[in-house]
Amino acid sequence: MEYLTEFGYIGLFAAAFLAATILPLGSEVVLVALLLSGLSPAGLVAVATVGNVLGSLTNYYLGFWASSARVRRWLALSDRAYVQATERFKRYGLVSLCFAWLPVIGDPLTVVAGVMRIRLLWFVPLVTLGKCLRYIALSYVVL
């Protein structure tokens, strides 16, 4: 059980971090497996949230430090996906960051937030809120 605890949290952190980047991965399966193994739901939600938010911050900084054309090329974002993310962000404003956990649109939203130089004072709490609530809801459904 000791190895499961140690490597379970590390694996969940890695899966959550990578899932928040533009890579087509998901952390939900790892979280569900660890929840069913009996590890602390609160601890798992905290680790998954931190990893996922740090992954989103990676996207943010890619957008912040690079031009939008370079970001699209690096992250293999189609022009359409980038334009849609920008339009959503402009339409819904900062509240859209609460939905950074959504598949397909969430990762581009975090990149666009960086390109648009959204203040971290707003970015981090809103992204964290959305991602944490998603993991809490999943844990509640599983348990």
The rounded distance between the terminal residues' Cα atoms is 20 Å
Number of domains: 1
Which structural class matches the secondary elements? mainly alpha
Mind summarizing the main beta sheet? none
Number of contiguous helices: 7
Mean pLDDT, all residues: 89
Secondary-structure element pattern, one letter each: HHHHHHH
Catalogue the unreliable spans.
none
Helix content: over 70%
The geometry reads as elongated
Strand content: under 5%
Radius of gyration: 15 Å
Number of DSSP-assigned strands? 0
Features:
about 140 residues; about 75% helix; single chain; 7 helices; elongated; mainly alpha
Please give a structural write-up.
The chain has 143 residues and is mainly alpha-helical. It has one domain (2-142). It contains seven helices and no strands. It has helices at 2-20, 28-36, 41-65, 68-74, 79-92, 106-115, 120-142.
Secondary structure elements and pairings:
Blueprint: H1 2-20, H2 28-36, H3 41-65, H4 68-74, H5 79-92, H6 106-115, H7 120-142
Helix pairs in contact: 1-2, 1-3, 2-7, 3-6, 3-7, 5-6
